[in-house]
Write a sequence for this structure.
C-alpha cells in the first residue's frame, strides 16, 4: 500500500508495510523462512554490502517478513524506521548500543518493568555502562541527574505496577535541553494509546511479546526511531556522527540522515549482537497487530468497569488505576494517553499477604502468570513472585507491597471477570 498520511490507525495496523507478494500474489504477508537471499550478480552483492542499495542478504540482518513488521510498527508510532529484535529486553540493549561507551550512563525512571531495573542496575555494568534512577515526576531531579556522561534518558509511558503515567513531554524537554535522546518503553500503552514521538521522544522501544502480538505466543521487541534527533549536534554520539570503525569508517548520520540510527541498528547492532527476530515470530506479531485497536478498546472498557467495581468493594483497600478519578494521574492520562489508561493495575486486598495468595489460587478465568498484555486476563502476586527478593520496604516502593496483586485485564466478558473476582475475594477474605 502507498503510504498516505491520511490513513487512520485502524487502516494502518492492517496495511502499513505490506503489499501483495510480488512473486505469487499472496494477499497475506508470507513467512519468508529463508536464511539467505540470492544476489542478482556480484555487483548487486557489493552494493548491498556497501549499504548503497537496500535489500536482503542474510536473515540475521534483514528478512522480508520481519521488514513488514518493522515498517508497520514504525508507521503506527510515527517514526521513520524500526528494527525488530528477539525480545523486549534485546530491544533495550539495541536502543542503547549506538549511544553508549564504557563510562557513559543512562538516566532512568524509578518506575520501570522489574526486568528492566535488573538489566539497568546490574547487567549493563558488564559493558561499562551504568544507570541512575530518579523519580520522573521530579523534573529538577531528572535535570540534576543528567551529567556530561549521560547518553540517554529512559522511561515508560504507562509504568506498572501502580498505574503511573509519565509526563512524556516534560521529560522530553529536559532531555532535549541537555542534548540527549529520550527513549520511551511504550509496551504497556502501545501506539494506539500513546505516541511518544508526538510528545518529544527520540526513540521508542517495545516488547512486542505483550499487546502488539496480543495472545501470548511469541517473544519479540522493536526499536523505533523518530528520525528527529540531531546526532551531530555534539560529539556525544561518535558511533553515529563520526567515521564508524565497525563499518569501514562509514559516517552513518552524514550518509543516511534521519535513517542513521535505523541503519546502524541493522548494519552493526543486528550484525554483531545478533538479537534478531525470526520470521515466524514476525508473522505471529503481524497477525496480532491487525486487531490492536479493537483489542485495546475492549481491554480498556473492561479495565475501567473492573477497577470501578473493585474500588467500591469492601474487601478491597485501594485500586491504583489512572483511569479512576481517585488516581493522581487521572488528569495527566488524558493528555498522554487520550484513549484510555491501559488495562494494567494493582489492587490491595484486605487480609494482606495470605489473602492475596488465596485470591490468586481461587480464580478460575484469571491465570497466575508473569506476563501482561494477553487477550486472557492475568494476575500475579508480585511480593511472592517477581519481587520476592526485595525487602518489604523495596516492595512497598515498587508498588508491590505484600497486600497488593497486579492484574492485566483481558478481553473476555467483563461480567464473567467480575464474577470470578467476586468468588475469589470471598474465598480469600472469608
Ligand atoms: C515484558 C516487558 C519488557 C521485556 O520484554 P521481553 O519481551 O519479555 O524481553 C520490557 N518492558 C516492559 C514494560 C515489559 O512489559
Amino acid at each position: 500500500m502507498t503510504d498516505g498520511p491520511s490513513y487512520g490507525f485502524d487502516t494502518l495496523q492492517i496495511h502499513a508495510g505490506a503489499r501483495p507478494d510480488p512473486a505469487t500474489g499472496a494477499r497475506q504477508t508470507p513467512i519468508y523462512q529463508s536464511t539467505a537471499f540470492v544476489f542478482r550478480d556480484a555487483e548487486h552483492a557489493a552494493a548491498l554490502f556497501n549499504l548503497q542499495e537496500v535489500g536482503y542478504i542474510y536473515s540475521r540482518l534483514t528478512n522480508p517478513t520481519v521488514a513488514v513488521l518493522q515498517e508497520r510498527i514504525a508507521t503506527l508510532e510515527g517514526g521513520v524506521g524500526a528494527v525488530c529484535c528477539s525480545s523486549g529486553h534485546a530491544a533495550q540493549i539495541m536502543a542503547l548500543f549506538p549511544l553508549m561507551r564504557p563510562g557513559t550512563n543512562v538516566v532512568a525512571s524509578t518506575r520501570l518493568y522489574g526486568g528492566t531495573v535488573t538489566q539497568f542496575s546490574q547487567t549493563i555494568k558488564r559493558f561499562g555502562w551504568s544507570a541512575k534512577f530518579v523519580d520522573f515526576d521530579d523534573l529538577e531531579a531528572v535535570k540534576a541527574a543528567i551529567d556530561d556522561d549521560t547518553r540517554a534518558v529512559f522511561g515508560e509511558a504507562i509504568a506498572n505496577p501502580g498505574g503511573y503515567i509519565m509526563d512524556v513531554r516534560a521529560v522530553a524537554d529536559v532531555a532535549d535541553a541537555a542534548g540527549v535522546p529520550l527513549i520511551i518503553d511504550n509496551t504497556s500503552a502501545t501506539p494506539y494509546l500513546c505516541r511518544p514521538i508526538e510528545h518529544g521522544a527520540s526513540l521508542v522501544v517495545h516488547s512486542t511479546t505483550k499487546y502488539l502480538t496480543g495472545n501470548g505466543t511469541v517473544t519479540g521487541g522493536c526499536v523505533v526511531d523518530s528520525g528527529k534527533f540531531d546526532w551531530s549536534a555534539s560529539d556525544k554520539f561518535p558511533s553515529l556522527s563520526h567515521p564508524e570503525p565497525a563499518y569501514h569508517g562509514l559516517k552513518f548520520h552524514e550518509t543516511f540522515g534521519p535513517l542513521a540510527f535505523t541503519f546502524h541498528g541493522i548494519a552493526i547492532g543486528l550484525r554483531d549482537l545478533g538479537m534478531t527476530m525470526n520470521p515466524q515470530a514476525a508473522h505471529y506479531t503481524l497477525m496480532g497487530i491487525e486487531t490492536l485497536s479493537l483489542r485495546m478498546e475492549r481491554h480498556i472498557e473492561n479495565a475501567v468497569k473492573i477497577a470501578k467495581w473493585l474500588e467500591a468493594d469492601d474487601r478491597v483497600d485501594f485500586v491504583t488505576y489512572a483511569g479512576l478519578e481517585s488516581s493522581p494521574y487521572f488528569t495527566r492520562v488524558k493528555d498522554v494517553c487520550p484513549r484510555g489508561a491501559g488495562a494494567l493495575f494493582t489492587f490491595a486486598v484486605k487480609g494482606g499477604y495470605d489473602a492475596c495468595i488465596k485470591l490468586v489460587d481461587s480464580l478460575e478465568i484469571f491465570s497466575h502468570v508473569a506476563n501482561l498484555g494477553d487477550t486472557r486476563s492475568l494476575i500475579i502476586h508480585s511480593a511472592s513472585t517477581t519481587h520476592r527478593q526485595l525487602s518489604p520496604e523495596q516492595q512497598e516502593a515498587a508498588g508491590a507491597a505484600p497486600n497488593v496483586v497486579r492484574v492485566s485485564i483481558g478481553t473476555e466478558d467483563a461480567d464473567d471477570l467480575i464474577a470470578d473476582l467476586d468468588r475469589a475475594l470471598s474465598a480469600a477474605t472469608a
